[in-house]
Amino acid sequence: MWCVNSFSQHSVSGTILNQHSIPLPETHVHIGQKTVSSDMSGSYTVKDIPSGVIKVYVSYIGYKSIDTTIVLTSDLTLNFKLQQMVSDLDEVIVKQIANRHNLSVREEKIKTEIIEKYSNQTLGDALKEIAGVSSLKSGSTVVKPVINGLYGSRVGVISNGVKLEDQQWGTEHAPNFDINSAAKITVIKGASGLQYGGDAVGGLVILEPLLVKKDTLFGKTIVNYSTNGRGGSVSSSLHKGKLHGWSWNVLGTFKYMGDRETPDYVLSNTGNREANFTGDLKYAAKKYDVSLLYSYYNAQIGILSASHTGNATDLYNSINNHVPAVIDDFTHSIGNPKQQVSHHLMKAGYNWYFSENTSLSVQYAYQFNKREEFDVRRGNYSNLAALDLELKTQSANIDYKYQKEDWQFKIGTNGAYQHNVADPETRVRPLIPTYEKLDAGIYGIANYKMSNSFAIESGMRYDFSQIDAIKFYQKSRWSERGYNADFSEFIFGDESSQWLTKPSFTYHNISASVGFLQQFHHEWEWYANVSLASRNPNSSELFSDGLHHSTGVIELGDLRLQKEQAIKISTTVLKKWSALSVEFNPYLNVIKNYMFLQPTGFETTIRGAFPVWEYRQTNARLAGIDFHSKWQVTKRWSHDLTASYVSGRDVTGSQRLIDMPPLTLNNKIQYARKDWHSLLLEMRSEWVCRQNQFPMNNFQTNIVIDGLQLPVVVDISTPPPAYHLLHFYSEVKLKTFGNAAAVVAFSVQNILNTNYRDYLNRQRYFAEETGRNFQIQLKINY
Amino acid sequence: MKNLKTLALAIITVTSFSACSDNDNPAIYIPVNEEEVITTITTTLINGASMVTLTSRDVDGDGPNAPVITVSGPLSKNTVYTGTVTFLNELQSPADNITEEILAEGDEHQIFYQAPASFGSFTYTDTDFNGKPIGLNFTFTTGSTDVNGNLIVTLIHEPNKNAVGVSNGDITNAAGATDAQVVYPIVIAD
To answer: What is the ipTM of this complex?
Structure first.
């Protein structure tokens, strides 16, 4: 039989489908010595194959290849069903759909290895790796991201697909998020991530956890110790992955730090603690997956003792003495003033994959944020928070994705209900009132690949929002604001010296984005995008009325504020050579009704005189450029440069905008040697220029000299001088037992122990920035 | 589709259970009881039968209205006045006497009296448990010339009482935070 048939010729034919029985055209089929590709219906035919034992190899990108042998004796029909390959599924689907929040905007990413470097620091510190992202700080532990000059309510933070609601309006409120629980961080500069909301005038920070789709179980532990602060952190995680079936992740982090130190003195009461947990459970089947997630963030943050001031005279003294008024011996303990914040996030998600091209995702999330701020108070009040806010947010999202040939559509809707309670037991009139907020939105995004090198994307979104607050206004304040004429309908009760009011506002907003991506011969990429964002005034901008202790200023909100609308034009040009890549990103953000605090006058209270700053609106224009280059100089040496510049102008008032990040240059030289235990040496230079464009908000106050009151100027405007810092980082990988690998890293921040102050640090009036810090990090993968 | 319905139902259920209304919490309809606020500072200067009262009253706290300052009459030259100062919170009814809290935490408070040298001199007559002055009680010995100008009374929370001059009433190195500061226009005559 064998001999006879070995001389005869046969043909093999069949169809190739994926696991959902969808034909796979252009599949590579290799049988014996012949190679063909399947047609549009997934069919193939290979003719004239000699009988005998022959090899069959079927492959299609993103699918597990079939590599087998058959005994061919006659014409044969062989149908194949290819299984999607998990690692490639990530690459392909994630890149096309999930990973690209918008095709026409260049998204900036921070990878796990970089995130791990910041394990002992904060999200805001890690984000500074990206050109155009800076940070607004209060001391060294409260760090808020600033994207292209904008922050707070203008920058949305999306954690696990849920928009974080953690009282983000406050300049002294850092995102309530454990940096260790992010595996990837994406930054979208501007409002183009429409599926997440239409109010990101500044941009979005998207935090994604580790997704393991392979059948595996592994863990990671990172231990840090820092000399400046004499403390550290431990973060440990376990990940169980599975293609189909159950998978889960758990992660816990503890942080314990004492007072930080400048080159010359201790920054008293600047220790912090964190205890965080994240856990999720997921069941994945072929056509759907269901997931549950819970995360908990708890932080206690000491606020520099010297930053607690009473009136304008105290502030004047702090600024002019150059040295903090309170310098105690180093301690790990935290006294008042301090912040105690916790954030719970629960999420249930359901994804349905109808086919390769169609999927539906439903998500429900509940967030509970509790913020307590303790101040220096008399007697027993020290143990009573001066600000106690409980913010509960429920949100539901439904997103539908559909892909057909070169078109891709995303539509979705979301609703959210938010309830903030300002606890009256604080015995202090709350900065933010009790309120209820209802949001509903709907969006549609379409993108079309016109050719292999050109794609366009456009989207539109509508949002409805209603806020109903309950607030007591002092009658004197209500009259002084002139609210009688405009808002008398809000008055609900008369409580001797105060009005009980129920302000209510409704907003209808449209946001949109349109842009394209053009690739030229693979080495050039050109992104261009125009986006329209609408942001409603937040509760602080509407309702603030009172003294802000850390700035010695009476801040007043305004019920008359209108929504802020921004049009941002942004373009990125990317050029890649074999060893060098360069990226330019100029942009222009024109903002109508830009809300900001403006000095307007003085008020005298029993504590003395205070400047009054009011939330006002103007037309603003921010123009800037971000630059990033990567150069692989030799096999082992590489260089990385990021630079960013932004200029912010109040067009109507022809003033400069406050708190704009100064010109910043980051140079990094890296030496890597794989053969020496993957040795990595890195030297980074951080050069921050002086901000020469600032509004002049200095004011006069009286101080008492020899029993006489003398007028002096309180200089709160002049930015600190430029500074240059050097940082060092090194690591080696060591094999331990079996699969376990350990990475030991040693780093030094501020090597030269430079004395400096940062323009974007709210505590620059009171103290310098931290001095040299040695940090050792041990990272074990198992 | 069944799964989807179940999920939708679950969302609606959870939402309706936890969507509590503000009406459930009566506490938020009661104005915050501001127990710490100082509304009224009264400085009393006594010599025998003559008494001069200096008052500053600010009933709206951080509100826009400035404190109302009253001075009962002129002071006499070359006179030793026994002085006391009281702090009240008149937003409470009856008014809360904050003077007692200051006395109880005497080591964390100090009151400073500032006027040009020609007005006379101030001497503390009370001490905290560390033997440092608090300033609730003092003597004011007026000078020998006719003058008019300002007497400034300042309450500092957490001053550094060990700093140079602070125990003698010099505010320059006191640091701390200003809890109250009043400027009284006074006249010293015959």
So the answer is: 0.84
